[in-house]
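[Q] Does anyone have a clean structure-token version of this?
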Amino acid sequence: MESFEPKKLALIRILQVLEKHSDSNHPIKHDKIVELLKSEFDLTIERKAIGRNISLLNEAGYDIETTKKGSYLSARTFEDSELKLLIDSVLSSKHITPKQSKELIEKLCSQSNKYFKKHVKNIYSVGDWNKTENVAVFYNVEIIDEAIESNLQIKFDYNKYGTDKKMHHSATHVVSPYQMILQNQRYYLMCFDERWKHVQYFRMDRITDIELMDTIRTPLKSVKGFENGIDYKRFSASMPYMFCDEPQRITFTADDGVIDQVVDWFGKDITIERKNDTNYVSIYASVNAMEYWAMQYLNAVEVLTPLELRERIKKNVQSANEKYKD
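[A] Here you go.
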């Protein structure tokens, strides 16, 4: 006979067994469930009680199928394909340390059964990826989130890599935080720098020694250009790099071979006109960001306006030409 304690635990333990050991390809006979309850939880229960408890779980909303081959959990919070997508995102995120990535992947794997993890090879290669060394990223997120919710400023040290390939203190900032943004596999803090009096974007993985202050943050709507809050069209104009200069209308020509890259980087809210076998592109973007981007595609892109940007690129090319002279 069942003791009082197992009867109270049976429902949740049976669910845990089904979560870990079953899926549509691996149904479990009720005899096997009895064995697993005993071996994994030291829980003794009669075979006939398994069916009753599974019926109760079904009534509670759990999708458990029972066939001649056994019972299995047919629906979970995440599909395996969704878990793989999330795991790949964690793996490729440069702002999460290898150790934190592995721990997150382990937690995601626990959302499926034991068979799923066997197919997740990425968990073993996480150390080979280019990731941050800053273990404080998750703590930074907590403090920044608390500051935003509490309407307070924060203080932190900002770091940059040196020639020794280690991070070194660059400056200390007091800022009013507004939002955390993921862009190009990097996590940024959008904030108002209280010293320089303008909006800036700081890499989250470069922030250390963060401190929540008692000072009320500067309201975003009091900052020039943000009177109506965050304009996400303007925000996207800071891409492909996170510069905070005023976005401008930029026009350039682009070869057919890079049109795919143009749309990939700047999205579909752009104008592309074809005249005389030439692609004329018009975008709204940060001039500083565009300078960096255009230099990458120098052989396929020619900036037309604004003239200031065109001159900057021309000087970059001349400077590069001097460096590469024989």
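[Q] Thanks! Anything notable?
[A] The chain has four domains: 4-73, 80-128, 137-226, 248-323.
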